[in-house]
Amino acid sequence: MSFGVKISAGGSASYVVQFRVGGREAKTRRYTIGGHGSPRTPFTAREEATRLLRLIAQGVDPVEADKQRRREAVDLAFSNYADRFAASCEGKGWSTLVTRSLHLHVKPVLRDKVLPRHHPCRRRCRFRSHAA
User: Fold this and answer.
1) Is the peptide bond before 39 cis (omega within 30 degrees of 0)?
2) Residues 19-25: contacts with CB within 8 Å, 24+ apart?
3) Using CA atoms, how far apart are residues 121 and 1, in angstroms rounded to an integer?
4) Is 111 left (phi over 0), alpha (psi -120 to 50) or beta?
5) Mean pLDDT of successive 10-residue segments in the chain (132 residues)?
6) pLDDT of residue 132
7) How much helix, strand and coil, in percent to the nearest 5, is found in the chain?
8) Which of 3, 8, 20, 127 could staple 26 via S-S, CB 3.0–4.6 A?
9) Cα(8)–Cα(11) distance, rounded to whole angstroms?
10) What is the pLDDT of residue 127?
């Protein structure tokens, strides 16, 4: 497990962590922390590398964790929920009304905004069925 700087052919520098998850038999993997420059400094990149190396030592693969986070962001996008809601509406008139309203009024504003996993109000919520 190591921390370093990768310099591209164009001359830009990126901070990387090189590691193996699963011992010597596993393939070597690289995780790019980020490019050099504001706000990333060698000190902040080293702190992030230390955090990642602790996770790797616990068996967590940061590359796979990143992929999972991106998949969840797509799954939690408002437009996906809106499409599922519209598809679940029964009755042609109701389904058409919901689809049209979402398309004209709501989707242009919220688009692919990621929805929170949990409803923001915890204790007294009038939308109890939506609270996680």
Assistant:
1) yes
2) 19/52, 19/53, 19/56, 21/56, 21/59, 21/60, 21/61
3) 42
4) left
5) 89 90 82 86 91 87 84 74 83 87 85 66 48 41
6) 42
7) 50, 20, 35
8) 20
9) 5
10) 43
